[in-house]
Design goal:
The complex is a heterodimer of chains A (595) and B (271). Chain A has 595 residues and is an alpha/beta fold. Chain A has 19 helices and 26 strands. In chain A, the strands form 7 sheets. A 7-stranded mixed sheet of chain A has the order 13-10-14-15-17-16-24, with helices on both faces. Chain A has a 6-stranded mixed sheet with strand order 3-4-2-5-6-7. In chain B, the strands form 3 sheets. Chain B has a 6-stranded mixed sheet with strand order 1-2-6-5-11-7, sandwiched between helices. In chain B, strands 8-10-9 form a 3-stranded antiparallel sheet. In chain B, strands 3-4 form a two-stranded antiparallel ribbon.
Chain lengths: 595, 271
Amino acid sequence: MKVMGKKINDFIVNVATANGTGSQSSNLIILQSLFEMGVPVSGKNLFPSNISGLPTWFIIRASEEGYQAPGDKTDIQVIMNKDTWINDLEKLEEGSIVVYNEDVRLPVDREDCILLGMPMTKMARKINAKLGKLIANMYYVGALAHLLKIEDWALNRALESQFKGKEKAIQLNLQAINEGKEFAEKNWDYECQYRSEKREKDPNTFLVEGNEAIALGSIYGGISMLSWYPITPSSSVAESVIKWLPELRMKEDGLTCAVIQAEDELAAAGMVLGSGWAGGRGMTCTSGPGISLMSEFIGLFYFSEVPGVIWDVNRVGPSTGLPTRTQQGDLSMLYEASHGDTQHIVLIPGTVDECFEFGWKAFDIAERFQTIVFGFSDLDLGMNRWVTEGFKYPDLPMDRGKIIRNQDELDAIPNYGRYRDVDGDGIAYRTLPGSGIDPILYRGTGHDEDGIYSEDPEVYHSTMARLRKKIDGSRSYLPSPIVREESVKDIGVIFYGSMENTIVEIDDILEETGLSVSTCRVRALPLHNEVEDFVRKHEKTIVLEINRDGQLFGIIRKEFPVDLIPKIHSVSYSDGMPPRARVYAEKILKIINGD
Amino acid sequence: MYLKWKNLKPSVTTGANMVNKDLSFLAVSGDGDTASIGVGQFIHAIRRNLDMVYIVENNGVYGLTKGQYSATVERGSKKKKGATNLQAPIDLCAMAINLGCSFVARSFSGSKKQLTALIKAAMSHRGMAFIDVISPCVTFANNDESYKSYNYVKANDEVLHILDYIPHFSPLEEVDVPEGEFSEVSLFDGSTLRLETLASDHDYTSVVSALSAIHEAEQADRHVTGLLYYDPEVPTATDTLELCETPLVELSEEILRPSLESLDKVNSSFR
């Protein structure tokens, strides 16, 4: 067969399998081996909300430009799942390559595609009858290794990293991969136009999930109490903390961090509050439904002024929604969670490095401002693997905030009251229980500066004004936005979080049309003043986000001066998928062209 | 410590206890909280044997919202206004015993001596000490048809034993239990609770005996008071976590933040 124009390190592979068949290992081996070769690669796991049987897709994209979004089309489709077989085939563009398991015995009616069959199940059963179903997935690894010219040493390294030290598993899977490769060489008279090619790989880089980065960050932030209630997609934050604690936080006589699996998210939040009140660094991790349940306590954090950290790894809402799909749908909820007037600090990492950094910083910020601090991630950033050059050690000492530790410190403050603003920044001094110092008054009912119950209108009003001032004061203290500015200021795009992984490609699509596009990645709420400056400087600003209603746009419209609002437009879209660049770029172009 | 937060105490106390196990925790709650809106947290605090004293002021009605029945009101009991309650009650002591609570007592706000001794003993216990205190609501349910009214409880109190608390720091004072039929309960801090037995068949070390006492009283529309159940051997919430000896809040930054070298190792392990 003839070879069309070669495409080096520029392809999209989609693997369709059923959940619970062990395909995740196969997919990660392909991803990891390409990564070992220095190929710029990203992987997206689109998994269902069940344990076994429902369809799963894994998208692997190699892109010399470093594009990490899923892309618009599939170059190589692997089909293993009979339930999605027909549909997966129908969606393909003419000329796509189809690698399929012959043993599924379903028709492959796409004569316009390149059809490459292999009796994967039969071959797998021959080497291990019992594990045949699982090992069958390794044959497509072999098939892809053959097509894409993935090098043997890279496959070996990926296998080792996947099955860490389990020699038997490594040998068995390697045998399957090699058999798959040999079959393809012998039986497929086809040279693939897509191929991988070794690049200089920074030896410092590795792939890691955002959730594990958050966990490590919190451990280096001195977390002393983790409470959690299992929920997808946040559970692996807690599980990673549990995994790393014995190595990183074991003193001679025991652990220096307590972990409690709570009875529900409300209790988990209560435990964070209790530990913060007692002077510890408490944290919990959850997803949107958990935040809904925690909302009662979130108000108590805010009003009684207790530090604590809650990570929200966003999944698709509302209600149970799509538990295993991604979205930025919780932002406005986090910002104003709980009843009454509230406003909360939200840290928004866009990379795994920032997941680590904000993981430790969150505690410092919570204690500095004596309030709840949210970390806001999502399933895409949290559960997929992203590149880092290695986590950077905290460059600041811990900030424990305004804590009075002894009687002398207490005496130095004239007319001390738990809620009296001595420094004019809205942040009062607190004492800790067990310190032997007298006033340990915290209150969730209306209170005066001494923490005494009060229904006095003036007292309530001034308490609320001080709380607003306190949180307002965090704007310049929180991580500032990352601004990439063009000299010609046609279009400014404001975005946040995991959209970072798609923005370069969106930017390229927009600039192909001759536009000059600056970008501003928001990294915290309340918004830094630089965001407003960014809007001022640009002709038109787009607020780009992965939800239906334009939640950040709503916050901006509420907080920015009225004269700026006509320049600001919302592009928000959510279908549960990680953002595909073209979908968002086209929506932006529509607004720019005034359609 | 006195927690002012309603409905939320067990979880808040759990968090505080985790980071500072040297603190003493005393929470006072109501039956509306403990048997309804906060019942989940109550159950799980017991299950963990959280090291705290949990006192319920139990009157069978919601007072602050003006006299609705709570979940602990007895079947057949009637408050001042409204219909007789026909739903089954939640007996907090029976529930606590079934969940393995390590110290369970019931008392009456009108029995000052008994209640004082029980609260002191509860403070001397390590683990969850639960005291259900029948506390008549004088505004909404102090009528004679209410099983938790002052007169009704006075007339129907099945007292298990006369109690005296002997603190470890002054063993001779406060002892006014007469010589004769008594047993002594040794508490964690070295103090003693002396029981002069009235109901001779009650064995506070037996779940079966404790539950029988509760259910027999319930069938006779009476209240049983005293130390119902005690087991000093249950591990506490912090015992099971393999924490270091120093309370976590007292650890320095050097201990809470692992070293730069350790992070290099973490990074290398991924490469």
